[in-house]
Amino acid sequence: MNLSDFEKTNYSGLYISKATHPSFGKKYIARFQYDKKRYVKVLGYTKKDNLTKKAALNLMQKFKDSIVVREEKKLPKAEKSEKYSDDRFEKLLEENKALKAILGDFKNVDPEVLHDGIQKVYDLEELKKYQIELIKLQNYLENENKRMIILFEGRDASGKGGAIRRITRYMNNKHYRVVALGKPTETQRNQWFFQRYIQHFPTGGEVVLFDRSWYNRAMVEPIFGFCTKEEHEIFMEDVVNFEQDLVRQGMILIKLYFSVSKDEQKRRFDRRINDPLRHWKFSEVDMQAQDLWSEFSEKKYEMLRRTSSRSAPWHVVRSNDKHQARLEAMKIILNSVDYDSRNYALNFEANEEVNISVQKELMQMRKSANY
């Protein structure tokens, strides 16, 4: 088994194959070291075994536990007593008590739920350092009377809404607005296309975050027949000049495209269907998103190719891992402005596996229809 054929997941020791078998899907393996020995085991396949990352994590943990128990049984009694003698044994007892005090009656909780909850705590703590920087950025914009627009685009279930919530969580709500426009009215349909968006633009010191934007006309509208081919082409020709004018007039414009894979989108849709807490998110449009994947890919490719400019470039954020996508989105926003009191001890460098250049995304799309 060649490890170069696999890529790491965000769980230590859990790997997934880079290639997808047409019948079996992707392969999960566990690989870890214990007592100077290396262990590798095939856990199963995403399609053949209907194996999710969480289920693979549980299988890996059971495999690890079985190895530890097996190896401990091999130890002679003298070695066992030496390994867990006095001070070390007391330390383990103290750690066990401390963990039980924190976790409570954890045996009655689904291990997957417990693991996700603990991981979420670590994720939120990592984001807080950058959320502090976002407050500094917001103060800078207010003090300098500058205006900022952030566009959040991507397929359904790509993670736009969750990213917006994390980005704005601690910001001063007096100086930012989230705009998510519905279907245009009859009056708006007869106006200049950009007019309904312009009326929501920020004033001095304000940030406006568009949860979907004028780029509806680049992807959603032509696919569902909400605009004519001529209207779509006029938009594609005009939008770059429109955005260049905005930037020339002092607007800070950030365009984020959240790029989710077809398999991950389906998994999130299935979760919306089966989870009563998320069922309200599922819509008729969601039902068509997988069937229309190729059509959306064509429009996405054209949009990224034709509308990414030097003054208003697209930032493509791979969003299969929601936490990493949110972290990279924050870095992109923070790197767009040279604000005061920046914490240079933080890592503002892009994670190139998540923050993808437009050129790299287009090249990947030419090879595979998965994005």
Explained architecture:
α5 (160-168) packs across α13 and α12 packs antiparallel against α14 (358-367). The strands form two sheets. A six-stranded mixed beta sheet has the order 6-7-5-8-9-10, sandwiched between helices. The chain has a four-stranded antiparallel beta sheet with strand order 1-2-3-4, with helices on one face. It folds into two domains: 3-112, no CATH class; 116-367, P-loop containing nucleotide triphosphate hydrolases (Rossmann fold, 3-Layer(aba) Sandwich), CATH 3.40.50. With 371 residues, it is α/β, with parallel strands linked by helices. The chain is globular. The chain has helices at 53-74, 77-83, 86-103, 111-144, 160-168, 186-189, 195-198, 220-224, 229-248, 262-274, 284-289, 293-307, 322-334, 358-367, and strands spanning 6-8, 14-17, 27-34, 37-45, 147-154, 176-179, 207-211, 251-259, 314-318, 355-356. β1 (6-8) and β2 form a beta hairpin.
Question: Which key features would you list for this structure?
Answer:
single chain, 371 residues, alpha/beta, Rossmann fold, 2 domains, six-stranded mixed beta sheet, four-stranded antiparallel beta sheet, 14 helices, 15% strand, globular
